[in-house]
Amino acid sequence: MAYNLLKGKRGIIFGALDDKSIAWHTALKAREEGASFVLTNAPIAMRMGAIKELADETGSEIIPADATSIEDLTNLFEKSMEILGGKLDFVLHSIGMSPNVRKGKDYGDLNYDWFLKTLDVSGLSFHKVLQTAEKTEAMNEYGSILALSYIAAQRTFPDYGDMAQAKAVLESIARSYGYRFAKLNKVRVNTISQSPTMTTAGTGVSGFDVFYDYADKMSPLGNASGEDCANYIVMMFSDFTRMVTM
Ligand SMILES: NC(=O)c1ccc[n+]([C@@H]2O[C@H](COP(=O)([O-])OP(=O)(O)OC[C@H]3O[C@@H](n4cnc5c(N)ncnc54)[C@H](O)[C@@H]3O)[C@@H](O)[C@H]2O)c1
Q1: Contact call for residues 202 and 109 (beta carbons, < 8 A)
Q2: What ranges do the domains of the chain cover?
Q3: Is residue 137 left, alpha or beta, with left meaning phi > 0 and alpha meaning psi from -120 to 50?
Q4: Which fold has domain 10-241?
Q5: Ligand 1 shell residues, CB under 6 Å
Q6: Taking the CB of residue 120, how many other CB atoms lie within 10 A of it?
Q7: Picking from 7-11, 31-35, 44-48, 241-245, which range would have the lowest pLDDT averaged per residue?
Q8: What pTM did the predictor assign?
């Protein structure tokens, strides 16, 4: 059922890789609720081609951008405002990647160049997105910028590796920039801590199946699916949460 929660709202959605991605579910839901948006992902992820299907289905344009590149992000924000015909109301940062986790590196044997890459892609990129949004004056008042986190930012989950530090950075940036952006332009900044979800990023974590079942048993309502998360995200983009930040 659709409620037109995002009628007339414009945004940017990062991170739809395939139909399992949380960003993919969010794009479908946001469209259903009346939003128009630009889809973006790292140029390398474009090669998979699936994002094109989502763009056709949602009537959106795609602008490739590496979220660690200020040049790409500036181009993305400026072009998105042109394409959508005005300033933005929402941005979803749905980005995560750790070379150490991907290559199964033990926490006592991390490669530090990769660690920096993890922090840059999964943590710092959120600051870059926020700073670029501010500098390009892209956001409308009460606009909502959101990133996806995981409970390992705050508690110990052995197999999550250096992604735990990246998520701690991400959540801290949401608080620091959330304060700044609210004061400056009444823009809201939040993170949602999602349950384990069977996506490319999720299943890259070793022992993910056990992890998934454990979380499902521990939570009184069970794990939230990608669709459940998308519903929550859409609500966070809507005017029903206009006083919710940080
Ligand atoms: N799946 C889970 O269990 C789970 C749980 C909690 C939080 N999250 C978070 O949700 C978010 C989305 O992940 P997902 O589970 O949908 O997996 P996913 O693999 O579908 O999405 C991750 C996305 O990050 C993109 N990305 C990687 N490097 C990038 C870069 N340099 N620039 C731009 N984009 C880049 C990938 O192309 C991909 O689209 C991530 O932040 C992830 O950490 C996932």
Answers
A1: no
A2: 10-241
A3: left
A4: Rossmann fold (3.40.50)
A5: 14-15, 17, 21-23, 41-42, 45, 66-68, 94-97, 121, 148, 150, 194, 196-197, 199-202
A6: 16
A7: 44-48
A8: 0.98
